[in-house]
Specification:
Largest sheet: 8 strands, parallel
Order of helices and strands: HHHHEEEEHEHEHEHHHHHEHEHEHEHHE
Number of helices: 17
Strand content: 5-15%
Bound molecules: ligand FNR
Number of domains: 1
CATH class: Alpha Beta
C-alpha cells in the first residue's frame, strides 16, 4: 500500500541519479525562493499580515509549544490518513485554504486553475475563494475528481449572495464556507505603505464579473468599464453577518454550511445550536486582526465545544508536523494557506503539488515513527502543551 511518506524515498532515489528536488521541501527554503520569484506587490500581499504581524508570527511559532509523546512497539507499517467530512471520504486530512490572490500567484494569472489541478493531482481538496481570477465553474472543472468547497464572502446584495451560492452548488462544490472575519479589511501595513489592494485594481473579481446578478448591477459588461465595476464591487463587498442571518444563509443552499473564523467556544456552541454543519477555526493567518493569540492555542477550546461537529483548522501550518499536531489536538481537517501560494509561484501546479506532497509526507512519517497508524490513534493520544 503506498504511503505519503514514500515521497522521501522518491526524492532520495532520484538523488542517486543526480536529480535533486526542484523545489525546497521545507518552509524556510520555499519562502526564500518565492521571495525571489514573486512580484513585490503580490509577495507583500501574500506574506503580509495585520499590524506588526505579531499574530501571524505567533500562529506559526506556537506549534513549537505543542508536542506529541511517541509510542513504541506499535505496528505502523500500514497507515491510513483518510477522513470522512460531510459524507466525503477524503484520502487525507489536508485541504487548501481559500486564498483570494491565488490567481495572481502564477505568472499567467491563472493560479486558481493551477491550484485546482494540484488538488486534482493529489486528492487534496481546495476551498475556492470568492476572489478568483477564473470563474468558480472553471475552477471546479479543473478539480477533476477531487472535491472542492466554495468560500463565500457574503455580499451586501442578497441576490448576488444567492447567485454565487447557487452557482457553487450547480458547479458541484461540496460545502459553502462562509468567512465571518472579513466584512472589512484588517490594517495591513505592507499593503498600505504601497497603497496596494488588488481588488481595487480590478484583480480577482472574475466570480463577480461572470455573475448575472452582478452584471445586472453594473448594467453593462463589467470589463467594458472597470472603474464602475470595481466601485460596484466595493459597494457590495462585505455584508456584516450576525446570527440572525443564519436562517437566510441556510435557505440559500442544501450544501453543508461551515463558518470560518470561529475561535471562541461560545461561538461554537451558538453555531451548533443554529444548525451549522462545520466549524472552521482560523484567525485568517493573522491578516485580519492582530489579536495576539495563535490559532492553534484556541483550537482545544473549539474542539471541546464542537463535540461531534467537524472542525476545520488553519493558520500557521508550515510543516507536516504542524498538521499532525493540529489533528492530535482534535481538528478534523487541516488547511494549508501561504505555503501552497509559494509553491504556485515557484512552479505552478507542479510547485503546489510538491508543497502538498511534502506536508503529507512529513505528517505521515511523523505518525509512522511516533506510533500512530491512524488519525484516530493520533487524536486519542492527543498533544501536550509545553510550558512557555
Ligand atoms: C487569505 N485567506 C482568505 N480566507 C478566506 O476565507 N478567503 C479569502 O479569499 C482569503 N484570502 C487570503 C489571501 C491571502 C494572501 C492569504 C495569505 C490568506 C485566509 C486563508 O484562508 C487562511 O485562513 C490563512 O492563509 C491561514 O494562515 P497561513 O497558514 O497562511 O499563515
Amino acid at each position: 500500500m503506498p504511503h505519503y511518506g514514500d515521497y522521501q524515498t522518491e526524492i532520495y532515489f532520484q538523488g542517486l541519479r543526480g536529480v535533486l528536488p526542484k523545489y525546497p521541501v521545507d518552509f524556510a527554503g520555499l519562502l526564500a525562493r518565492a521571495q525571489a520569484a514573486m512580484s513585490p506587490s503580490t509577495l507583500k500581499y501574500v506574506q503580509g499580515g495585520c499590524g506588526d504581524e505579531h499574530t501571524q508570527d505567533a500562529n506559526a511559532s506556537a506549534f513549537k509549544h505543542w508536542g506529541l509523546i511517541p509510542r513504541m512497539m506499535v505496528d505502523c507499517s500500514a497507515r491510513d490518513l483518510s477522513i470522512d467530512l460531510f459524507g466525503m471520504k477524503l484520502p487525507s486530512p489536508l485541504f487548501m485554504a481559500p486564498i483570494g490572490v491565488t490567481g495572481l500567484c502564477t505568472q499567467d494569472g491563472h493560479g486558481d486553475l493551477a491550484a485546482a489541478r494540484a488538488a486534482a493531482a493529489t486528492g487534496v481538496p481546495m476551498v475556492v475563494s470568492t476572489l478568483t481570477n477564473d470563474p468558480l465553474e472553471d475552477v471546479a472543472a479543473a478539480l477533476g475528481d477531487t472535491p472542492g468547497m466554495f468560500q463565500l464572502y457574503t455580499p451586501k446584495d442578497p441576490e448576488l449572495a444567492a447567485s454565487l451560492v447557487s452557482r457553487a452548488e450547480a458547479a458541484g462544490y461540496k460545502a459553502i464556507v462562509v468567512t465571518l472575519d472579513t466584512w472589512v479589511t484588517g490594517w495591513r501595513p505592507r499593503d498600505l505603505n504601497d497603497s496596494n489592494f488588488p481588488q481595487l485594481r480590478g484583480h480577482v473579481l472574475e466570480n463577480y464579473f461572470s455573475d448575472p446578478r452582478f452584471r445586472a448591477m453594473v448594467g453593462k459588461d463589467p470589463k467594458s468599464d472597470l472603474q464602475t465595476s470595481v466601485m460596484t464591487w466595493a459597494a457590495t463587498f462585505g455584508k456584516v453577518l450576525t446570527w440572525a442571518d443564519l436562517p437566510w444563509l441556510r435557505s440559500l443552499t442544501k450544501l453543508p454550511i461551515v463558518l470560518k473564523g470561529i475561535c471562541h467556544p461560545d461561538d461554537v456552541r451558538r453555531a451548533k445550536d443554529e444548525g451549522v454543519d462545520g466549524i472552521y477555526c482560523s484567525n485568517h493567518g493573522g491578516r485580519q486582526a492582530n489579536g495576539g493569540i495563535a490559532a492553534i492555542d484556541m483550537l482545544p477550546g473549539v474542539v471541546e465545544a464542537a463535540g461531534d461537529t467537524p472542525v476545520l483548522f488553519d493558520s500557521g501550518i508550515r510543516s507536516g508536523s504542524d498538521v499532525a499536531k493540529a489533528l492530535a489536538i482534535g481538528a478534523t481537517a487541516v488547511g494549508v494557506g501561504r505555503p501552497y501560494s509559494y509553491g504556485l509561484a515557484l512552479g505552478g501546479t507542479e510547485g503546489a503539488v510538491h508543497v502538498l506532497r511534502s506536508l503529507l509526507a512529513e505528517a505521515d512519517l511523523l505518525m509512522a515513527v511516533d506510533g500512530f497508524p491512524t488519525i484516530k490513534a493520533l487524536r486519542e493520544a492527543g498533544a501536550v502543551r509545553l510550558p512557555g
